[in-house]
Amino acid sequence: MKQINVRVDEDAYAGIEARAVAAGMTVPEFARQVIADEANDLRHRFLAAGAHFSDAWTDTFATEFGHPGSEQHGAAAA
Q1: Contact between 16 and 27 (Cβ < 8 Å)
Q2: 21 vs 7, 26, 72, CA distance in Å?
Q3: DSSP secondary structure of 3-68
Q4: What is the C-alpha end-to-end distance of the chain, expressed in Å?
């Protein structure tokens, strides 16, 4: 296993620490997970495909289901 040492300022550390606590992880566990996720090519391809799908179908979903917070949903509302 390889080791990486990274220096961050106090504000960055506080943000990382808060997110680690929210995730139920230690700071090193959280940092390791974030770095592993960023290195995962399959994850990046999945996220890019999801963004492409969302961009391609946004209007269709809005027509069918409305927008969040709107009162009208679906073709029956028309």
Answers
A1: yes
A2: 20, 7, 39
A3: -------HHHHHHHHHHHHHTT--HHHHHHHHHHHHH-HHHHHHHHHHHHHHHHHHHHHHHHH--T
A4: 59
Contact 66, 74 (CB under 8 A): yes
Residues 6+ apart with CB under 8 A from 17: 27
Question: What is residue 71's predicted lDDT score, i.e. its pLDDT?
Answer: 63
Does 76 score more than 50 pLDDT? no
Report the alpha-carbon distance of residue 16 to residue 44 in Å, rounded: 21
The average pLDDT across 43-50 equals: 88
